[in-house]
Amino acid sequence: MDQRLPLLDVAKGLVRKVFPDHWSFLLGELALYSLVILLLTGVYLTAFFRPSMGEIVYQGSYQPLSGVRMTEAYASALGITFDVRGGLLIRQIHHWAAVVFTASLSVHLLRVFFTGAFRRPRELNWLLGVTLFVLALLEGFSGYSLPDDLISGEGLRIAEGVMLSIPLVGSYLTFFVFGGAYPGTDIIPRLYSLHILLIPGLLVALVGAHLQLVFTLKHTHWGGRGRTNRNVVGVPFFPQFLARTVGLLFAVAAVLATLGALAQINPIWLFGPYRADQASTGSQPDWYMGFLEGSLRLMPASETRVLGHSVSWGAFVPAVLLPGVIFTGLYLYPFAERWITRGRGEHHLCDRPRNQPTRTGLGVAGIALYGVLLVAGGDDVIVYSFGLSVNAFVWTFRVLFFVLPPLCFLLTKRICLALQAHDRERLLAGDESGDVAQSVEGGYTERHRALTADQRYVLLARDVPAPLDAPPVQGPRLLRLLVRVRIALSRWFHQDQVELPATEQQRRAIAAAVAPPGHQQEEDV
Asked: In degrees, to the nearest 5, what angle opens at C-alpha 217 toward C-alphas 215 and 218?
């Protein structure tokens, strides 16, 4: 059998593959198993959903809508909900799995960012991860729009307005996507093809490529005694990791099934079918599209007419330009940090976020920016619930959009430096024990407990490149300017660090641990 189907050669390496033993590395598996549940429940729903915008008169089980004209897509979604055995449960599991998938994927990307796991040689994996996140947003939006209820129809209406705001090609793009004047008769079938075929195929392919790179490049792991840039310390795939990951799969499925059974989500029967002349108050998209809703609500209405063409800045800037800038920055960040960092070697040890205060501050600033947009997307619900002024709320969040991220960056950086100073105090004096001793003179002092060797190693094992020096540069003016910019950015990124006390022997040991593979060391840890 092995001669005809040589699987044992692959299995030999897979069985002994080492996986780090830390909970933060399971975040990506949460996303993977949520995707598995999405695919399984999606296959079930596909058997009963009819992606047609042809109108019929509803005569189904839900009596409040009996006799109402609606599209076949909405009628089939109601049929799944009320007439198919287990249909509502599967539909809600599917929706909850989509929410958990995007959430776990987001947190996994944040873990990779804050720990520096995107650095060489994992830049391609970072690009794949960001692409997976973009595809997850598109997949969620397309699936959210398929039932053709009043809220999802409003989302499509907003998408039409955003496409129309694109200069020169907006009207042509809208006509092509909707198959004619809005709403047309083609958008639901086209979204259905994207939702069940194209985007899932891309997701599965990219997840496979991502996992292959993880196996090939090996995992990152947290610093500690015996853990270096040239090894991976953890548990083997079989049997320890396999038992854990299968257990996690069952746990994810159980939690999603419980949510689908007990926590109502997207009750489309309450919204009614979509009509272009109606709008629902208090409508909100899923959380992962909330930042686009908030950016549209915060942007003032403005328009410019150039050469006979109107440019609607109120839709183009918040829904096209801003997301383009955000995701372009995410794609380019690993290469930008590498450009302003002295080291070019491989990195397999995770950074403690406090040891990279600038990067951590940038990440928290991005989270603050996203939070402002997400809350602003629910301004109508918030002001109605608390009796606030809409104008005051919008202007407050317009100011926060520009003020809060820089404040969060500065505060986070100071907190990281304070935590580094706390690490220095622990290395010098040890941990507080809570025991108080009285001296013969009558004074009281607190006894400190010395750190263990493993604790000291974790605190000292950090890779902190020094800012780049300013070498003499000969060449064109543009080249000299580029070098000066790089040096200035390097100093801004690396200059604020707290020096930790360590003996010369400890410094050599740490230098050997964080050295990239293939780098010769004076001493072998």
From this structure: 60
The residue written with tokens 């987001």 in the block is 106
* Measured torsion, CA atoms of residues 62, 66, 70, 76, in degrees rounded to the nearest 10: 30
For residue 241, what are its two tokens?
Answer: 């990791």
Q: How far is Cα 494 from Cα 515, in angstroms, rounded to an integer?
A: 18
Instruction: Phi first, then psi: give them for residue 336, nearest 5 degrees.
Output: -65, -45
Residue indicated by tokens 């099934």: 257
What single-letter amino acid sits at 241?
F
Query: DSSP code of 224?
Result: B
Per-residue 3-state assignment (H helix, E strand, C coil) for 466-494: CCCCCCCCCCCHHHHHHHHHHHHHHHHHH
Of the chain, the end-to-end C-alpha distance in Å amounts to 44
Q: Are 115 and 168 within 8 A, CB to CB?
A: no
The identity of residue 356, as a single letter, is: Q
**Is the separation of the CB atoms in 375 and 382 below 8 Å?**
yes
Cα Rg of the chain, angstroms: 28
pTM of the predicted model as reported, rounded to 2 decimal places: 0.91
List, in order, residues 6 or more apart from 105 with CB less than 8 Å away: 31, 129, 132, 133, 136
What's the one-letter identity of residue 34? S
Structure tokens at 496: 């604020």
The residue to which tokens 């799969």 are assigned: 249
> Per-residue confidence at 520, pLDDT binned at 50, 70, 90?
very low
pLDDT tens for 149-158 read 999 998 999 9
